[in-house]
Amino acid sequence: MAKDSALECVVFARYCRFAMKPVLRGAIFCLWLLPPFEVPVLAAEFSAPLKVLHHFSANNQSGYNGQGGLIKGSDGALYGTTSTGGRHDLGTIFSSDCNGGKYRLLHAFGDSLGDGWKPFAGLIEGSDGKLYGTTLAGGTSSQGAVFSVGKDGKGYQVLRSFPVPVGGGQNLYSPVVEGSDGALYGSALSGGAEHTGLIFRMSKDGRDYSPIWTFTLNGPEGNHPYGSVLLDTNGAIYGVTTSGGAERQGAVFRLDRASR
Questions:
Q1: How far is CA 41 from CA 8, 29, 95, in A?
Q2: What is the rounded CA–CA span in Å between residue 84 and residue 120?
């Protein structure tokens, strides 16, 4: 391994609890387990200490409880969501530079009637440069929404409120993804004919929406998809379900283009 590599050493350990030990150029971090779990655990030395870029606080309106992770935009900035906080305590969209000096609130959910709220998923940057995301609740029926916003915080709009149509999906915990056709694909945890979730496709302007697979209580692919879907270059859709299937504990599935 090169000496200038950020990941400089790998250490395996067993029969331990949690530990954090300072070293010359950073820290060794590891998750150690008690017997009988004899699994290798990774610890790594990094060349620089962890730096806090922004402190979330319930005492201001910048948002807190960030659960969806970050993306790095084409402009080099970081973008993310918080599930709570903001002017109405319904979540926010924010940006930050990579040094933490320019944290900016882009949108506070609940500013208008019919707005989505409680985003539990992160964002994506579309091929048009806009940010797209989902909310667990809110929208015109209080069952979640898909939204878009510019990276400067301008042009925010709710593209679709769920459920649409009646029997459509609801409660979006995962982000949408953009397909090679320029459309957005996503999963809804619940809703559909048997209230067990579905996969949907929609245009980036929100006008063209259609469920492309509805899960059922007894289907072999399981039901209630919690995570995001994955699209391959051939148009197949991959995902996981949290329950149902042969063992009633969920499944990994693939949906081919020809079957949609």
A1: 15, 10, 33
A2: 9
What is d(CA 179, CA 115) in angstroms, rounded to the nearest whole number? Answer: 25
Is there a contact between 251 and 240 (Cβ–Cβ < 8 Å)? yes
CA–CA distance, 19 with 39 (Å, rounded to integer): 16
d(CA 179, CA 59) in angstroms, rounded, equals: 39
Name the nearest CA neighbour of 123 among 173, 68, 76, 75.
68
Structure confidence at residue 101 (pLDDT):
79
Mean pLDDT, range 19-23, rounded to an integer: 36
Q: Which residue has the tokens 């940006």?
A: 95
Q: Which two tokens stand for residue 192?
A: 């559909």
| pLDDT, mean over the chain | 83
Q: What homologous superfamily is domain 70-259 in, according to CATH?
A: TolB, C-terminal domain (2.120.10.30)
Structure tokens at 247: 């063992």
Residues 156-195 as b or e (16 or more Cβ within 10 Å = b): bebbbbbbbeeebbbbbbbbbbbeeeebbbbbbbbbbebb
Tens digit of each residue's pLDDT (9 = 90 or more) over 180-218: 999 999 999 999 989 999 999 999 999 999 999 999 999
For the chain, which residues make up each domain, given as ranges? 7-50, 70-259
Mean pLDDT of 61-72: 92
